[in-house]
Specification:
The complex is a heterotrimer of chains A (about 170), B (about 650) and C (about 100). With about 170 residues, chain A is mainly α. Chain A has seven helices and no strands. Among the domains of chain A are: about 80 residues, Four Helix Bundle (Hemerythrin (Met), subunit A) (Up-down Bundle); about 40 residues. Chain A is about 75% helix and about 0% strand. Chain B is mainly alpha-helical. In chain B, helix 4 packs antiparallel against helix 21, helix 5 packs antiparallel against helix 6 and helix 16 packs antiparallel against helix 18. The N and C termini of chain B lie far apart (about 85 Å). Chain C is an all-alpha fold. Chain C is elongated and about 50 Å long. Chain C starts with a helix and ends in a 13-residue tail after the last helix. The chains are: A mainly alpha (about 170), B mainly alpha (about 650), C mainly alpha (about 100). Chains A and C meet through helix 2, helix 3, helix 4, helix 5 and helix 6 of A and helix 1, helix 2 and helix 3 of C.
Chain lengths: ~170, ~650, ~100
């Protein structure tokens, strides 16, 4: 095959989309960390979530991809934006502590190297017969193994709801 | 123990009763003394204390009689012993041991034999007379309950000392009388000189006690037993130790003698006895004349079988006794306080007792203890009566011509002075006579000479005391003269009884009675050269006449003699420098050493430095460590990350 | 061309590290919470990748639950932030340093 053909094939393959969306994810993640204004960080985080949703979809998890948009980008980030606007957060001053910053970046880099070093030995390949439809997902979720956990999670959410209300109230 | 056997042999249980009665009195007076004083009439405490001691005396007489009646037990010289041990032969308390560590076993046991029975009679008899006297003497003292409780406690400890069947038990009594001596000397503790005197007595005693403890330890090590009876038996199997082959027996005897010196105020541990006169006069009479100071003589007499084996120890005892006798007599010549004269006289007489023991005549030494108890108590109580009449004045230079004003005191005092000087038919003549006779007959001529000279001096200074106090004209102030009055009958009664005793006790052949107890077969009446009685009586008369001439007839002669012999007088007044030397040692070496070395250097620098330094080190370490706690959450999180990275690194690259 | 799963894991590691460093570098509490959410997402990605590799859907179920818990945690965390702001009138993490010696 000619190089151009290979290139065209690549351009319409899943891998290409994967690289594009992962690049977006990393770039926006960097923006989350490096932006001074918290509102900008929140928006960058939304972009990250959307990119990740795409990645999930490409990896064969459509239901999770949908959930990512609905729950994360749609609920959690909206909550974040609510609170940001409620508390009227301003632009953040540059943080002091040079020692702290260098130590953080150094240790972070070290950690990343270690993780990468661990992963390098893995030989992963996608399995065949990957049944990732919503029906099979639901069958598993409401099945004997995970039903109890699922119901418990609803209790957890109830607790979080009550807790959030109580903690944020002005007068107890 | 059935009632029949009790009646037949009261010596089995009565000693325990006798021992416990004064202790009971002490306890009751301690706990309820104030109540007794308030509820009953003023002398309730005194009456109770006296009653108990009189009861003890009565029981002691019973024990003594039973001792005379029982069959001799064992031995070749008709030994008469009764050993009563708590726990033997079916008593209620089976096998009561005070200390039991491995093979070291000290039971509670009392030894009742002629020596201890005799001492028991003296202690309880003279003691009860002094109790009666004290009721009168201390009638106006606010602390008399405490006084009587201490007196009872002392009686208990003294009886324990005498009756104790083994050395440790005797030592408990020994220490106890030392304690009571301290308490009673410093009775009026608000007076600094009194409390200082108490301290001095106790500390000097302690020095002697160190020797005693060492002696006990050595005795245990060498002989395997501390029981008095067993030691006496064991001594039969030991070899005689002449000076050249001085061995463990000599060592033990010398150490025990050190203890005796401390308690009986022999040179150089005599310094506490004169200062002990700070205590009430009945205390001086009881403790420092009749009983406690004779404990040393008692110890030596008890250990007679051991002492006889050691030539070195006997020499030490005899010579230290003789030197002390002469030494104290010379100091007594220049004393002006009436009680100090008597104190030095006591030291001197104790020297006589040790002299007797040292030449082998133990029974005679104890005989002198016996007679000395009576006339010295009489003299002290008489002086107490004089002091009472003089409203507390003790300086003889303020007295004079009292014989017309306090006749009863005067005449009993005359009897006492005659007794101590060695006038015939009175107690001191017999006992002192025996001592000097034994010295002469056993060919210890230097000791005899010292004894004779001391007898001369004794007669002299005692007569001096008599003449200065009772004869001549009154030298005190006019109102003092006005107040001179005779003492109450509670004080005079004992004086009369003791004076009567002085006539009688000399006749009792105590040394024969004691013979078996001190294992001496040859102390019966020894033949004496014809000039001997004349020499002794002559010395006594010469001393008295000399004092008469110097102090009464040729007034002013005493002052001129004093001026002529001034340097010698100074030395005597300084008590040969002993107090100065001890003071210098104590203050220079001990106090300065403690302050300079132990306090400032060791305590402040080393010990405090170590303790404070430990604290400072902890402080420094914590100061360094708390830099970790910045309060910044991010820093904490970083540390967690650092830990995680390290752990991961280790897991990844650890050597396989 | 199929997606190399190893690269997905590398992406997960990169996102996780970025989020972690962000926690240490930022001072605003809410920003730190957002970085934590980023880290959770990185973990989710890893789960999905491994689920793809193993062929069973258990990984995805786990992601479901992680998302739920993350939502609950974000809600309560933000409520705490509101309370903190009311108390100290500052959202700077360095202001809450009462644990200092």
């Amino acid at each position: 095959m000619a190089l151009f053909d290979r290139l065209l094939l690549f351009l319409v393959s899943e891998a290409f989309l994967f690289y594009v969306f992962s690049g977006t994810a990393v770039a926006s993640a960097l923006c989350v960390v490096l932006q001074r204004n918290p509102m900008h960080s929140a928006f960058a985080l939304i972009v990250t979530f959307c990119s990740l949703s795409a990645v999930y979809g490409l990896l064969g998890a459509p239901f999770i991809a949908a959930l990512q948009i609905i729950v994360y980008a749609g609920a959690i980030m909206v909550l974040f934006l609510f609170v940001l606007m409620l508390l009227n957060v301003k632009r953040e001053e540059p943080s002091g502590g040079r020692a702290l910053k260098t130590a953080a970046i150094l240790l972070g880099a070290l950690f990343a190297l270690q993780v990468v070093g661990t992963l390098a030995g893995f030989g992963l390949s996608p399995a065949a017969n990957y049944d990732s439809s919503t029906q099979s997902f639901a069958r598993l979720l409401f099945g004997t193994r995970f039903l109890y956990v699922f119901e418990a999670t609803s209790i957890l959410i109830l607790a979080a709801l009550v807790g959030a209300v109580v903690v944020a109230k002005k007068d107890l | 123990m059935s009632f029949d056997s009790l009646v037949q042999n009261p010596a089995q249980v009565l000693p325990w009763v006798i021992l416990m009665l004064p202790l009971f009195g002490f306890t009751v007076l301690c706990l309820f003394g104030d109540a007794i004083k308030r509820d009953k009439e003023e002398s309730g405490a005194g009456i109770m204390a006296t009653g108990l001691v009189l009861a003890c005396f009565a029981l002691a007489v019973v024990v003594f009689r039973s001792l005379l009646l029982i069959e001799p037990v064992g031995g070749e010289h008709g030994l008469r012993f009764v050993t009563t041990r708590l726990g033997r032969e079916g008593s209620v308390l089976e096998g009561a041991n005070w200390i039991e560590v491995g093979s070291f076993r000290i039971p509670f046991s009392l030894l009742v034999d002629p020596l201890s029975a005799l001492m028991m009679l003296v202690v309880t008899g003279v003691g009860s007379l002094i109790h009666v006297y004290s009721v009168g003497y201390m009638a106006h003292d606010a602390d008399r309950v405490r006084y009587f409780s201490y007196l009872n406690l002392f009686t208990f400890f003294m009886l324990l000392l005498i009756l104790g069947g083994n050395l440790p038990l005797m030592f408990v009594g020994w220490e106890g009388v030392g304690l009571c001596s301290y308490l009673l000397i410093g009775f009026w503790f608000k007076k600094k000189s009194a409390s200082d005197a108490g301290n001095k007595a106790f500390i000097v005693n302690r020095i002697g006690d160190a020797g005693l403890i060492l002696g006990m330890a050595l005795a245990w090590n060498a002989f395997g037993s501390l029981d008095l009876f067993e030691l006496a038996e064991h001594a039969k199997n030991l070899a005689y130790e002449p000076m050249a082959q001085a061995g463990v027996v000599t060592a033990v005897c010398l150490l025990l003698f050190v203890g005796a010196c401390g308690k009986s105020a022999q040179v150089p541990l005599h310094v506490w006895l004169p200062d002990a006169m700070e205590g009430p006069t009945p205390v001086s009479a009881l403790i420092h004349a009749a009983t406690m100071v004779t404990a040393g003589v008692y110890l030596v007499a008890r250990m007679a079988p051991l002492f006889r084996l050691s030539e070195g120890a006997m020499l030490a005892v005899a010579w230290i006794g003789a030197i002390t006798a002469l030494f104290a007599a010379t100091i007594a010549l220049v004393q002006t306080d009436i009680k100090r004269v008597l104190a030095y006289s006591t030291v001197s007489q104790l020297g006589y007792m040790f002299l007797a023991c040292g030449i082998g005549a133990f029974g005679v030494g104890v005989f002198h203890v016996f007679t000395h108890a009576f006339f010295k108590a009489l003299l002290f109580l008489g002086s107490g009566s004089v002091i009472h009449a003089m409203l507390g004045e003790q300086d003889m230079r303020q007295m004079g011509g009292l014989r017309k004003k306090i006749p009863w005191t005067f005449w009993t005092f005359v009897v006492g002075t005659a007794a101590i000087s060695g006038i015939p038919w009175l107690a001191g003549y017999y006992s002192k006579d025996e001592i000097l006779l034994n010295a002469l007959v056993r060919e210890r001529l230097p000791l005899f000479a010292i004894g004779l000279v001391t007898a001369l001096l004794t007669a002299f200074y005692m007569s001096r005391l008599l003449f200065m106090t009772f004869f001549g004209s009154f030298r005190g102030s006019h109102e003092a003269e006005h107040h001179v009055h005779e003492s109450p009958w509670t004080m005079l009664g004992p004086l009369v009884i003791l004076a009567a005793a002085c006539f009688y006790v000399g006749q009792i052949h105590v040394n024969e009675f004691l013979g078996p107890a001190v294992r001496s077969p040859d102390e019966a009446h020894l033949p004496h050269p014809t000039w001997f009685p004349y020499a002794v009586i002559g010395v006594a008369v010469a001393g008295s006449v000399g004092a008469f001439l110097i102090y009464l007839v040729y007034s002013g002669l005493s002052a001129r003699i004093y001026a002529a012999l001034r340097p010698a007088a100074r030395v005597l007044e300084d008590k040969y420098g002993f107090d100065r030397a001890y003071d210098g040692f104590a203050s220079k070496v001990v106090v300065e050493g403690s302050r300079g070395v132990l306090w400032q250097a060791v305590d402040a620098v080393v010990i405090d430095g170590a303790v404070n330094g430990a604290g400072r080190m902890v402080d420094a370490v914590s100061r360094a460590t708390r830099g970790l706690q910045t309060g910044l959450v991010r820093a904490y999180a970083l540390v967690i990350l650092g830990g995680a990275v390290a752990l991961l690194g280790y897991l990844l690259w650890m050597p396989k | 061309m199929t997606i190399p799963l190893l690269h997905a894991l590398y992406l997960s590691a990169a996102l996780f590290t970025i989020g972690m460093v962000g926690v240490f570098l930022r001072r605003n509490v809410i920003t730190i919470l957002m970085c934590i959410e980023l880290m959770l997402n990185a973990v989710n990605l890893a789960f999905i990748a491994f689920s793809r590799a193993s062929g069973s859907l258990d990984g995805q179920i786990l992601v479901f639950f992680v998302m739920t818990v993350a939502a609950a945690e974000a809600a309560v965390g933000l409520a705490v932030v509101i309370a903190l702001q009311r108390h100290r009138d500052s959202l700077d993490l360095d202001a809450f340093n009462l644990l200092k010696w």
